[in-house]
Structure formats: structure tokens, C-alpha cells
Amino acid sequence: MADVIPFAPRRRSASQGAAAAGPFGQILFFTGVRYERQHEPAASKPPRRPRPVGRGERENRRRRPG
After folding, report:
1. Which DSSP state fits 1?
2. Which of these, 2, 6, 14, 55, could form a disulfide with 34 (CB 3.0-4.6 Å)?
3. pLDDT tens digit string along 22-49?
4. Which of 27, 30, 24 is nearest to 8 (CA)?
5. Which portions of the sequence form the region Disordered (predicted)?
């Protein structure tokens, strides 16, 4: 994909040679476009908060009989 293929010019007859005295053009055949995704660095995760020492958060949130 995305290959450029040059075509060789055809030989012209002697009668048309005088009309094409200038420089010759180059004909290219373009077969398509190749899309590539650029490599992106991995997103860094935010640092985690440390766990509380001692009783877990669940136990602290429980209702205590009064």
C-alpha cells in the first residue's frame, strides 16, 4: 500500500517529435494513502493514597449502638 509506480514514457512517432521539444514530464500512479497511528506514551496513573493503619475504613463507618 502507498506505492508510487512510475510509468515509462511511450516512444513517440517522428511526426510528433517536433511538437514535444521541451522537457518531458514524469507520470506517476499513486495507489493509495497509508494511515499510521503515532505511538503515544502510556498515561501515568495518579499515586494511590496509603491505606489507614489500624482498623479498616468499613469498621469506622459502622453504626455503633449508643
Report:
1. -
2. 2
3. 677 777 777 777 778 888 877 778 888 8
4. 27
5. 1-23, 38-66
